[in-house]
Amino acid sequence: MHQVFNTPSKVIITCNKRLSPYLELEVKNLGFKPVRIFSTGLELKVSLNDCIRLNLNLRCASQVLYSLQEFDAENGEELYQKVTAIAWEKLIDFGGYFSVTSNVDNSTITTPLFANLKVKDAIADRIKSVHKIRPNSGPDYTKTVVHLYWKNEKAEIFLDTSGETLAKHSYRKIPGKAPMLEALAASTILATQWDFKSPFINPMCGSGTLAIEAALIATGRTPGLLRMNYGFMHILGYEEEVFFTERRRLKDQVVKNQDLKIIATDISEDAIDISKKNAKTAGVDQLIEFYACDFADTRIPQDEAGIIMFNPEYGERLGVHSKLEATYARIGDFMKKECKGYTGYIFTGNPDLAKKIGLRASRRIEFYNGKLDCRLLEYELYDGSRRTLS
């Protein structure tokens, strides 16, 4: 059963809200042409084998969903009948394991769990009718994953070729406090239009995500080099040579011996210890200089201008507001006095605190961190820049 791996179909690549411009950039750089782009992803027409390549390369994505069938379904019983009609015995091993995820907005369904159960029963009943054995199913996303999209009476069934989310890049074994999602961190770095050669400075680095993503992007190390299990591996017809060929290509494209200057600092020695361990797991610990110090003591290379990027606390879950006001004011002073010639970035979800920076932002790039409306504020740090309240 190799047909599904070579047959182009609608593919939806999802991402967190506001990350689609950076996802689009990645997809186009891989040579694919999006059919349409929306706030939480984009659509392609490609094969399952193409999905293997997408899964291994994308930094900003969440799931890569391969469409099997679209149909009308008014209620749960109609959904069951239509899903049962799909030849699941040609896609899922009867001795295997599968799980179901869904995005449901149908007036007859009070809980998505009910819709998931209908899909699970339909798949299992279809396979049992052919093989006389019912496959196992459950909540784990480590084997075959089937996704249901159901809005009003329009339903669509996908194979989730990713399984576990792509938004986590498999190196952060120790997350630290209030960590930034890896896909979000990668997107904010792409938003800076950093040249991947000049210095990248990350004070208040926390668990090191921004510095690690910067090192991974600059050296062409893709998330696929850190992960060995995907949803596509558990679909009948999968040929592991396609996966390993792409993986070898990714290994060969890694830029070695690059003269990078990435510096990450944090006042917490525990945070620096966590960052070093995460960087080692990611394979970039030799590319990042880590120091335990107050952000204002971060050494800023002056031989060439680069990027300095802060992701300070913003008073949602951590910290005390009045204390943070003083911190934001200090960040502004530090950038103005010590980072001349650099481009400064502060990622924050608190516009009131942002005003304490005391510099005028040249760009305000919109993001979400979870459900929190955030901005990546850009500052051109010219020599003698005038202090103005934003």
TrEMBL record:
Q: What InterPro entries would the database entry show?
A: RlmKL-like_Mtase, RlmL_1st, SAM-dependent_MTases_sf, THUMP_dom
| PROSITE patterns noted in UniProt | THUMP
**GO MF assignments:** RNA binding; rRNA (guanine-N2-)-methyltransferase activity; rRNA (guanine-N7-)-methyltransferase activity
Q: Which UniProt keywords apply?
A: Methyltransferase, RNA-binding, Transferase
Q: Which residues form the THUMP domain?
A: 50-161
Write down what this protein is called.
Class I SAM-dependent RNA methyltransferase
**Which organism is this entry from?**
Pedobacter puniceum
Q: What is the lineage of its organism?
A: Bacteria, Pseudomonadati, Bacteroidota, Sphingobacteriia, Sphingobacteriales
